[in-house]
Amino acid sequence: MPLGTLDRTPPPFFRQGPSAVSKLAVCAALAVFMMVADTRLGLGTPVRFAVATALYPAQWLVMQPVNWINQSRAYFSMLGSAQEQAEAARVRLAQQAARSGQVDQLMLENQRLRQLLALRERLSSPAQAAQVLYDAADPYTRKIVIDRGLMHRIAPGSPVIDAEGVLGQVTRTFASTSEVTLVTDHDQAIPVLNTRTGLRGVAFGDAGAHAGALELRFMAANADVQEGDLLSTSGVDGVYPPGLPVARVSKVERRVDSAFARIFCEPLGRVAGTLHVMVLTPVTGQVEPRPAAPVPEPTASSKKAVRK
């Protein structure tokens, strides 16, 4: 057979079809079309949803051991924390029970001593709750306005407190509202008592570099006042009942060139941000008025001088 008559085409088994470049071009065009269709028309969303739904049981089964391990760790961690908190609560409960017994005993002893010495009982100030409406319009003062006034029998000078301590006193009353001057106002002063030493003093609102605080003025440089001392109302002013927490000493400056120490205090009441307060009745409204001084009897010499 001559060579020119031979069939040089590959057998069907080895045929490759389109070239690799053609396949790449078709796949790239198809990928671009699918991306554009998914972006514009959202055609891939149902497919993804179906695939995610089909794979969810497998994912759930694979994640179960990991979830069990994490839950076991959290359980044992919370169990240890709960046991520690329960132990601390039992210790605090025992301490409070002991203190409660001591307080009851001290109150009974105090009552018996007062009866023995014929002293009157401590005054209990009636109180009513109020809500803070807004701060006063004057930016140079520290005042707030509450929703209780003359209609609610609020009197000027009534002490105002919150859950932590003294806030101030009512300085102006209207029909349904009242204006409260805070203890940090520069015109406000409150007699206080150092609960550690029993030393009395007067705390003034600090409008200087320590704005928003109190200053214990006119205290001797060698006075026994330390940082952390608790100051409460002394009750000598006839406005605040005794024993209300006012402030805590934060800084003591003793200077050689001055006979008085500079003592700065942080108020215990939330003077900036409180929403609910208690308005007390002034102490002066609960005690008997001061008796009038007796008029001296005219003597014989004074009668002769009047006749002349």
In short:
With 308 residues, the chain is an alpha+beta fold. It folds into two domains: 20-118; 127-285, Thrombin, subunit H, CATH 2.40.10. Helix content is 34%, strand content 25%.
Q: Strand order, biggest sheet?
A: 1-2-5-4-3-12
Order of helices and strands: HHEEEEEEEEEEEEH
What CATH calls the topology of the largest domain is Thrombin, subunit H
Termini distance?
181 Å
Give the helix/strand class. Answer: alpha+beta
Helical content stands at: 25-40%
CATH class of the largest domain: Mainly Beta
Count of separate structural domains: 2
- The pLDDT mean sits at 81
Rg calc = 42 Å
Number of strands: 12
Please name the fourth-level CATH homologous superfamily of the largest domain.
Rod shape-determining protein MreC, domain 1
CATH arch. level architecture of the largest domain: Beta Barrel
Largest sheet geometry: 6 strands, antiparallel, barrel
SSE blueprint:
Layout: H1 20-41, H2 44-117, E1 127-135, E2 143-146, E3 159-161, E4 166-173, E5 178-182, E6 189-194, E7 200-206, E8 213-220, E9 230-233, E10 245-253, E11 260-267, E12 276-280, H3 300-307
Antiparallel strand pairs: 1-2, 1-12, 2-5, 3-4, 3-12, 4-5, 6-7, 6-9, 7-8, 8-11, 9-10, 10-11
Q: How would you characterize this protein structure?
A:
There is one protein chain. The strands form two sheets. The chain has a six-stranded antiparallel β-barrel with strand order 1-2-5-4-3-12. It has a six-stranded antiparallel β-barrel with strand order 6-7-8-11-10-9. A hairpin with a 4-residue loop joins β4 and β5. 34% of the residues lie in helices and 25% in strands. With 308 residues, it is of the alpha+beta class. It contains three helices and twelve strands; from the N terminus they run ααββββββββββββα. It has two domains: 99 residues; 159 residues, Beta Barrel (Thrombin, subunit H). The radius of gyration is 42 Å and the shape is elongated.
